[in-house]
Write a structure and sequence with these properties.
single chain
Length: about 325
C-alpha cells in the first residue's frame, strides 16, 4: 500500500536549547487560568478532530516516534528492561512494516525511560541505535529526599549514560507559592544534568488549581527545563486535556516572550490510540505541526504501543489482532 506520510524521521531538528532565564516574579504573578474556559476548549478537541484510513496510519506511525517507552515498576528487573529495549528496537512486527511499504522511515520510540538502577542495562541493550535512555531521578515519585541526594542521583544517571533526566519537583513549594525555592532547585538540577536534557515532572494532580500548574510550568521553564511533564504516573490524577491545555499555553507564551521552544510530555493513563490522536491534535492546533517531533513532544507510556500496533494492523487487514501478538515485554 502507499501511505501519505509526513516525515516520521527520528532526526531531531536543531533548535536553541533552554539555558534558563532569571526568575521574573512579576510575570509569575500575572498568570491566571480560567478553568471553565479551559474545560470548554479541551472538550472540543476529541469531539470534532479525527483522522481516518491512510491518514490515521500515518499519524499512528508518528505517534510511535513520540513515545517514551517506560517501565517504572517496583518489581522491575534487568531482564524486563532488556525486553523493553528489544521492543524499542523493533516496535512493529516486520510483516506489518513490509505491508506499510515505508522503508525510508525510521520508526523508533523517542526514548526508553527507566529507574536509575537500570540505566546501564538499557544503554547496553540499545547499543548504537540512537534511542536515548531517560532516567527518572530526584527521589521519584515523591521528590522529598535531601537536595544533595537528588543532585547525586542525577549525576550518577548521567555518568551511566542517560541522555535525558526526568526530575520531580517538590509539590509543596508550589502549594506554598515558594517560587524562588522551586526555581533554585530546578536550576541546580539543570546544572547537574549537563548535556543531558531535563524534563520537569510537576505532579499536576497534586497542585490544586490550574493557575498553580501554570505558574509552576513557567518557573520551571525559567529555570532551564527542556520539557515540562504532567505526572509521575503514580498520582491519583495524571495527564488530562485540561491540564495539558494549561501547560501548552504556558509553553506558547514562553516561546513568544523568549524565542525558546519547550517540550511537553503528558504521562500517566495514556494507553489508547484514540487518546494519543487527541493529544496530537491538541498540540497541532495549539502549538503547530512542527511541535509534533520527539524533541518537543513525548508521551510517557508503557501500554500505548500495544494498542497502536493493533490499530495499525487493523488498518492494513481489517482485523484486530489479539494483544499477545504484539507483546510488550
Amino acid at each position: 500500500m502507499s501511505l501519505r506520510v509526513v516525515d516520521n524521521s527520528q532526526h531531531h531538528t536543531p533548535h536553541k536549547r533552554n539555558h534558563g532565564f532569571p526568575l521574573d516574579l512579576d510575570w509569575v504573578e500575572r498568570v491566571r487560568m480560567n478553568r471553565s474556559a479551559l474545560e470548554r476548549r479541551a472538550g472540543s478537541i476529541g469531539a470534532r478532530r479525527t483522522v481516518k484510513k491512510d491518514y490515521q496510519l500515518a499519524w499512528l506511525l508518528k505517534a510511535i516516534t513520540l513515545i517514551d517507552l517506560t517501565t517504572l515498576n517496583s518489581d522491575d528487573t534487568a531482564g524486563r528492561v532488556e525486553r523493553l529495549c528489544a521492543k524499542a528496537l523493533h516496535p512493529l512486527r516486520q510483516d506489518i512494516l513490509d505491508q506499510l511499504a515505508v522503508p525510508e522511515l525510521r520508526i523508533l520510540p523517542g526514548a526508553v525511560c527507566v529507574y536509575h538502577s537500570f540505566v546501564k542495562t538499557a544503554v547496553e541493550a540499545l547499543g548504537g541505535s540512537g534511542i536515548p535512555v531517560a532516567a527518572v531521578s530526584t527521589a521519584f515519585p515523591h521528590g522529598l529526599a535531601p537536595v544533595e541526594t537528588k543532585l547525586k542521583e542525577i549525576e550518577m544517571s548521567v555518568a551511566d549514560g542517560a541522555a535525558e533526566i526526568d526530575i520531580v519537583i517538590e509539590r509543596g513549594m508550589v502549594l506554598r507559592n515558594d517560587w524562588q525555592g522551586l526555581y533554585d532547585q530546578v536550576r541546580a538540577f539543570r546544572k547537574a544534568c549537563g548535556d543531558a536534557h531535563i524534563k520537569t515532572i510537576l505532579g499536576t494532580g497534586e497542585l490544586a488549581t490550574q493557575t498553580n500548574v501554570a505558574k509552576a510550568s513557567l518557573v520551571c521553564m525559567m529555570a532551564g527545563a527542556d520539557f515540562i511533564k504532567t505526572s509521575t504516573g503514580k498520582e491519583k490524577v495524571n495527564a488530562n486535556l485540561v491540564t495539558s491545555l494549561t501547560m501548552i499555553r504556558m509553553i506558547r507564551w514562553f516561546a513568544e516572550e523568549t524565542g525558546i521552544e519547550i517540550g511537553y510530555k503528558p504521562a500517566g493513563g495514556i494507553s489508547k490510540t484514540k487518546d494519543a490522536l487527541t493529544y496530537m491534535a491538541l498540540i497541532k492546533e495549539e502549538l503547530g505541526t512542527h511541535w509534533l517531533q520527539p524533541h518537543l513532544f513525548r508521551f510517557g507510556a508503557s501500554s500505548l504501543l500495544t494498542d497502536i500496533e493493533r490499530q495499525v494492523e487493523h488498518g492494513l487487514t481489517g482485523h484486530y489482532a489479539a494483544d499477545y501478538r504484539q507483546p510488550m515485554v
